[in-house]
Amino acid sequence: MKWHKLGLVFNSSGQYPWMLTHASYPVAEKLDGDLVKIYFSCRDKDQRSSIGAVTLDLNSPQNILDLSSEPVLSPGNKGYFDDSGTTVASIINADDGSTYMYYLGWNLGQTVPFRNSIGLAIRASGQTSFMKYSEAPLLDRDANDPLTLSYPWVLKEGNLWRMWYGSHQTWTHSQYEMLHVLKYAESADGFNWQRSPMPVMPLQLERGEFAMSRPCVIKHGGECKMWFSSRLPQYKMGFATSNDGKTWKRDDEQATLVPSISGWDSSSVEYASVFEHNEKLYMLYNGDGYGASGFGLAELVFSSASDQ
Q: Within a domain: residue 70?
């Protein structure tokens, strides 16, 4: 199995004042037929992030059919947990026909660069706009996650809601600027979450890895599969499998998506978001500059063909 790159799909280039640069953390919502809406995070002149969206046909992904003229979700008012930006993380359909968008809220700091919390926005059944569930975070710092929380990925299995998310362990550790790990939580309703205290996988400090971020988990082939971003210091793609979603076996060689020889993703690949369509797996991902060069699309193929 190998990811075959389908090319750069979209990058913000000043289309709107709130969409001057970046198209980070892309995530797909399937529409009718072969259409998908891709949500992403872009930045304004002050580096505050908003959430935008493009609609495309998977048969011709570079042909953008629609681009949001207004933010899907904007930063909060001064002093709120998301006043420095909102970053899309995960899209999930609820049983009542509504759609939940779990997102990251940013606060810039003084003693540390930033503090993140997890927020929720909901699009009611039959509506077109997402509304923030609360001006307060859905998940914030506590005894298990005392520093910062990031990039929740949510799956719903029957009545069980499952979340994988990022958490800082420390802001300084030896030569590393931070230690950031992945954790797990469960919920019966998507609102109230019980967090597990321990990381789902240890960092590989011996090879210079100091952060794992943006987990993406799907159920495929009878097991859970996770793609995540491994930082050491450039991002590379990591991969792991699990029978229960709690205990993971890491095998980064199976991630297979690597930087290209040249172009927009030649320095790094990160922030994978994998989805299934017509019995095929597709991956949205970012390249150089943490989304500054836009997002691309890849398709999983059983081939020895090069993806460079």
A: yes
Looking at residue 303, its pLDDT comes to 57
pLDDT tens digits, 162-172: 999 999 999 98
139 pLDDT tier (thresholds 50, 70, 90):
very high
SS3 of 178, please?
A: coil
Apex CA 255: angle with CA 249 and CA 258, to 5°?
A: 150
Per the structure, the complete domain to which residue 104 belongs is given by 2-301
Q: How confident is the model at residue 178 (pLDDT cuts 50, 70, 90)?
A: confident
**What is each CA distance from 240 to 82, 145, 175, 202, 225, in whole angstroms?**
31, 23, 26, 12, 6
Supply the CATH number for residue 148's domain: 2.115.10.20
Whether residue 55 is contained in a domain is answered as yes
Residue 252 is given by DSSP the state: G
What does DSSP assign to residue 86? E
User: Under a CB-based contact definition with an 8 Å cutoff, are residues 21 and 12 in contact?
Assistant: yes
User: Is residue 77 in some structural domain?
Assistant: yes
User: Per the confidence metrics, is the pTM higher than 0.90?
Assistant: yes
Residue whose token pair is 């095998």: 251
Question: Of 135, 13, 126, which Cα lies nearest the Cα of 73?
Answer: 135
Tokens of 263: 């172009």
Residue 93 placed within a domain? yes
Q: Which residues, in sequence order, are CB contacts of 20 under 8 Å at separation 6+?
A: 12, 13, 14, 42, 43, 44, 45
The reported pLDDT for the residue numbered 221 is 86
Domain total of the chain: 1
